[in-house]
What we know:
By secondary structure, this protein is α+β, with helices and mostly antiparallel strands. The chain is built from 7 helices and 10 strands. The protein has helices at about 1-10, 55-70, 80-95, 105-125, 160-165, 220-230, 235-240; strands spanning about 25-30, 40-45, 75, 125-145, 145-150, 150-155, 170-185, 190-200, 205, 210-215. The strands form 2 sheets. Strands 1, 2, 3, 4, 5, 6, 7 and 8 form an 8-stranded mixed β-sheet that branches. Strands 9-10 form a two-stranded antiparallel sheet. β4 and β5 form a beta hairpin. The chain is globular. It starts with a helix and ends with a helix.
Amino acid sequence: MRYLILAILTSLLTGCATSDVVQPDNKFAKNFQAPDRSKRIVLLPSKVDAPQFASGGSVVNRQLYAQLQRANYKVAVLDEKNYVETWGQEVAAVGGIYDPQSGRFRPDAYVRALSSLVKRIAAEVDCSMVLAPRFVLQSAKVSHSSASWDGVTRAEHEKDEVLMSNLKYEYDGTAAGLSLELMAFNDKGEWEFTTYGGILLPYQSDVKKKKGVLRSDLFSDPKEIREATDLVLSPLQSVKQ
Length: 241
């Protein structure tokens, strides 16, 4: 009976390691080149719309900063207060990045606002690139006891009641996976690339409540953070100058 319940809950449940890792849908400008290392890369604060994931923004940004420095880039971080004020102005200038009727995200408006923000930053800072991280929920492929999305596989998380039963549940379908999206713009405000890296599975299965519940240990595993940031920074870490 429990197996049947779990099968019904496939879309809410989380998983771990599939044999075939689902690769991220990264995109690059046709003439993308590595940024000039004699100039700075400006790292914007992570955009986190869902309050339940807010604690991860600073964690991810610290890791991005550290890895860029290890790759011999000069990194500048935009002050949070200045960012909030300036970003709000750019969002207003494009009519908002969410549709006022449906509430849906407007990706084109988001890119326009970012491009304009980058131009303002580049006018004041001698930089070669501006990086804009954002948390996004993606569809993870679940197979048996594993989930894969955006270049990673992650372990299943279940409530203690399931773990203590000494039974192992397997199912196929999809689950929500939290990913890091990284958009890069050059100093002219031109888009250069968008990359993705899976971070974690934010929900765990709760058989008693017959739904997925938010995990209490989000962003506690530094290996998950490092794997995600490695993936999104791969264009900058792999290009030779």
